[in-house]
From TrEMBL:
Gene3D superfamilies: 1.20.1260.10. InterPro entries: Ferritin-like, Ferritin-like_SF, tRNA-Hydrxlase_MiaE. This is tRNA 2-methylthio-N6-isopentenyl adenosine(37) hydroxylase MiaE. Transmembrane segments: none annotated. One of its GO terms (molecular function) is tRNA 2-(methylsulfanyl)-N(6)-isopentenyladenosine(37) hydroxylase activity. It comes from Flagellimonas chongwuensis. PANTHER family: TRNA 2-(METHYLSULFANYL)-N(6)-ISOPENTENYLADENOSINE(37) HYDROXYLASE, TRNA-(MS[2]IO[6]A)-HYDROXYLASE. Pfam families: MiaE. GO terms for biological process: tRNA modification. It comes from the Bacteria.
Amino acid sequence: MLGLKLPTDPRWVNIVEKNIQEILTDHAYCEQKAASTAISLIIGFPEKSELVKEMTALAREEMGHFNMVHDKILKRGWVLGRERKDEYVIQLMKFFPKGGSRDTHLVHKLLYAALIEARSCERFRLLSEEIDDEELSEFYRNLMVSEANHYTMFLKFARKYGNKTEVDKKWDDLLEYEAQLMRDLGKKETMHG
């Protein structure tokens, strides 16, 4: 369903289980960045009323998820750690060339967001099925549904604001590029990389 070309190695869950505090901190910041992305789309493209409406709801939802992850951290007697660089996102954002029209820029931002949400959804599914921590298993099962909805929403908007054939080609190329990234990344106690 997600279209990812390279699934996460299930052994990634073993890394997560040895580093629960790290993954929760990374996850919290991923939720905060997702809210920031929604807000930046509102600021950058205020004339796209349907997008603004959906991004407003998304920003609220993502901050709610941030709060839920933060509560998990506090419940375990920890505090939110400092933000880490997200090597996955840094490398992913190098795919599309800089410049181009405003509409092209929007489509690229939407495709990046769709892919990040798709990978998050895939990782949440894996955690929900494989992690021994029952509380976190249920937590990630519930979040997985939201991430799938976000992925499809971003892809729908990319196809709406761009030429569908071109968008689908860019999407497929981006998926191939992301699979190459995941061959080198995907082995750390981070949500994506």
